[in-house]
Amino acid sequence: MKFPALGKSSRPLFLSTLVLFDVETTGLPSANFNPEITELCMLACSRFSLENATAEPRVENKLTLCFNPTRTISSIASKISGLNSDNLFHQKDFDASAVDLIQLFLNRLDSPVCFIAHNGLRFDFPLLRAQIMSVKGKDYNLNDSTNAPIICTDTLPLFREFASQLSGVNSDDSGFISTDDQSSTPVPISHSSPIKLPTTTNKHSFHLGDIHERVFGEKHKHAHSAEGDCRAMLRLVQYLGSPAIDWLQSHYINFNSLTPMYNLQTSGTSRICSLFPYQRTKVYSDVSLSDTTSQLDNLQLE
């Protein structure tokens, strides 16, 4: 798929709410593999709370959702994210009700609203678009409370732009595997950042965790959880302060204009609410489910 360029806009937009966004997935996309979201987090805060501040914002709004995907989670993705078919067994997959929750969440935020993700233009945003369209149809758009489209931007080019302020990051050497080299790398994995060469030192890397470790001298907590990666982005944007906010509101794209990562055939009607895994896979027999229900009914709390 063709990735959009994030050039400087001729019309800078004075943002009000920044939504740090990250997903964990079943793996990376390939010719024979369309990943699905297993976890997403939207961490929203006022742009003013990130300008010239020394503490994390006290006022935050957060949406975190986990999904049991319809496709198998790769073993590598499961190992990295900690999400698997067992601990997601009581979660539904990504359905229309999940999109409704996202839209209701966005309606509560002061506009203009901007999604921010690390390597989001190549991974997180196209994947979210694909999953939204698969359950809501190709004409569905995410809008803010004024019915204006949600915009999005990417911290990867932001951090490259401010490389000199990020403790010796070399903006000419990202340390990531090229497209030609990816065929020899075990795939898929679960995080949205590009795959790193094992021999690359972290001073040349724009991997989110490596930048965080260089700047703050410690690994960020809960790496490869959607919320953990959102908080790492938030902390780094806050570290850069007002210049980073100015850059973000001059380099953005309409989220609804992005090409989805893949296209799935839809029936033309939205899938309102999906089934739980045990309902759709029939892992347990009707008898065992009946027995379990009976046991729960007879349970006495002391």
From TrEMBL:
Q: Which GO terms describe its molecular function?
A: 3'-5'-DNA exonuclease activity; metal ion binding; nucleic acid binding
- Cofactors, names only: Mg(2+)
The record's GO CC annotations read: cytoplasm
Q: Where is the Exonuclease domain?
A: 17-246
Q: Alphabetically, which GO biological process terms does the record hold?
A: DNA catabolic process
Keyword list, A-Z: Exonuclease, Hydrolase, Magnesium, Metal-binding, Nuclease
State whether keyword Hydrolase applies: yes
Name the domain of life this protein comes from.
Eukaryota
UniProt key word Metal-binding? yes
Q: Which InterPro entries match?
A: Ribonucl_H, RNaseH-like_sf, RNaseH_sf, TREX1/2
| Family note | Belongs to the exonuclease superfamily. TREX family.
Q: What is the protein's name according to its record?
A: Exonuclease domain-containing protein
User: What organism does this protein naturally occur in?
Assistant: Schistosoma mansoni (Blood fluke)
